[in-house]
Amino acid sequence: MPKTHGTWFVCNVASWKQPFLETYLKDLGARRVEFVSREADKYVLRNQFCTHRDEQIIIWGAVEPPALMDHIQRRKLKIWRLEDGFIRSIGLGARHIPPASLMLDRTGGIYFRSDRPSALEAYLASHEFTDTEIDAASKALDAIRSANLTKYNLAEDETDFGIRPEDRNILVFGQCEDDQSVIHGSPKIKLNSELLEQVLQDYPGCRIFFRPHPDVVAALRPQLSDISVYADRVTIMDGPFPVWKKINLFEKVCVLTSLAGFEALIRGVAVQTYGIPFYAGWGLTDDHVTTKRRNRKLSLEEVFYGAYLAQPHYIEPQTGHLSNFEAIVRHLKAAQAD
Predict the structure, then answer these.
(1) Lower CB count within 10 Å: N or C terminus of the chain?
(2) How far apart are CA 109 and CA 82, in angstroms?
(3) What are the pLDDT digits (tens) for 87-115?
């Protein structure tokens, strides 16, 4: 790819991510990559930027450091945003495991923010899908199902939670309540406790199972609401459980904005959303809240093609060099077998 004439400045990136991100961005065309501290004040930023006449600002996630945003507004610069993709790794990102896919949004939005447009949303709203693209999506979906791939691909033993196939079982996926996808993607419900209250109201007579986020179970992220108070009405699945091998035991999956909802759709399970994840609003899910920007019906293959094949970049996790979907699937399958 041809090199640009500017320097790409990247903010909000932990030090352990920087080596592979530098390689990735240079593969995309950056001549030079510099990382900007989230805590940098306007004087530090002025010194860092002063030697560059043509810079591009990239922000990881949605956090907007005030001094950086002031610089962006004064210079009238455009923001790109960067985030993990949807097939990420074997293990949690919070454990500093490099990602196998990234989403670079050059519009200034990002896929998990429903409070503003994003490149993925615009693509899904306007792209005319071809038969070739639908066929590619169908084959990729088959590859994911056959290898049972998910975002984190956690290997788990089975705890007996008393799930009976004859019952109407509803599985609720909890999230990290301080996550930007909840803050910016769920306009009404913000806490797992609020989510459970709504599900209990919406699904009377059903058996409700709550699956905490693995980062919370591993004490890598905080829990902001007390789920234990629901233990008499909800089965809290806080032990190991191969959820994707057993997902068909559940009549429906309920989420705020969790990718687990789309992973359930991939496996043929009905989904209720209470926030506005990227896959809501296209006719695939029952939605508690909606956005007027999404007024088109799409198939599972079409949403999958946009989110997993057209928009993300796949990268070699250890080096950061650009790769492709098929190579990453092979890599993850091999890693699962080890």
Answers:
(1) C
(2) 9
(3) 999 887 778 999 999 999 999 999 999 99
pTM for the model stands at 0.94
| CATH code 3.40.50 region(s) in the chain | 7-127, 131-310
Both structure tokens of 30: 């950056």
Q: Which one-letter amino acid corresponds to residue 64? A: E
* Spatial distance between the Cα atoms of 197 and 211, rounded to a whole number of angstroms: 15
Query: pLDDT tens digit string along 216-257?
Result: 888 888 889 999 999 999 999 998 899 999 999 999 999 999
**Alpha-carbon dihedral angle through residues 227, 231, 233, 236, given to the nearest 10 degrees:** 70
Cα–Cα distance measured from residue 111 to residue 105, given in angstroms and rounded to the nearest whole number: 8
Structural fold of domain 131-310? Rossmann fold (3.40.50)
Q: Are 132 and 309 in contact (CB under 8 A)?
A: no
Q: What is the enclosing helix (H) or strand (E) of 102?
A: strand 101-105
Tokens at 55, concatenated: 């810079």
Q: Which CATH number does the domain 7-127 belong to among 3.40.50, 1.10.3730, 1.10.3470, 1.10.10?
A: 3.40.50
Angle between helices 42-49 and 66-75 (to 10 degrees): 50
- Per-residue exposure over 189-222, b if at least 16 CB sit within 10 Å of its own CB, e if not: bbbbbbbbebbbeebeebbbbbbbbbbbbeeebe
